[in-house]
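Notes from hallway chat w/ T.B., transcribed later so I don't forget. T.B. wanted the structure written out for a chain they're using in a teaching module, and asked if we could keep both sequence and structure tokens in one place. Agreed to drop them here.
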Amino acid sequence: MLNPAVVGDRPVRLLFQDEARFGRMVRIRRCWSPCPLRPTVDNGYERQFVYVYGAVSPLQGELDWMICREMNTVRMNEFLLQVSQAHPEEFMIMIVDGASSHRSKELLVPDNLRLIPLPGYSPELNPQEHVWDELREKEFPNRVFADLDSVVAQLQEGLPRLAANPKALRSLSAWPWIISLNLKAN
């Protein structure tokens, strides 16, 4: 139950949250090369991954993110706390998918944050999915990484670059139905 005192007259921030897996397996993408040459791309089959928790704020064009080596309830708790502390003056509504860590009894949701689940099997309703696509397209096309630390290093370069561009984030995530929402808590 929502306590009106917790909300008070804080501004409301809408976030869409999701996790993504990034690893050493290459994603082959189209690319250009001068005629008559054909581009060559190395291929890697190593199944090693790191995870990124992300939450996009479409109206503000902001991205909160956290890189970790595993995806579970403990890491989700850390991410929720990180987001809560990043926006302490706001009341946040975070839209999440049906991942088991989002429904766990051990999940600790900060007072200034509420989780709202998306309908099952509906990733097309989550603009954070488009943020992941943009990150993969711009930072990871046709790349083979020697080790997992190289993947993390690329994420640590690419995520801040993406987060520093509010206009691009709004373009990816501020869909008409999101913009038209009335976000008043009281």
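Follow-up for T.B.: The mean pLDDT is 89. Might be a good example for the class.
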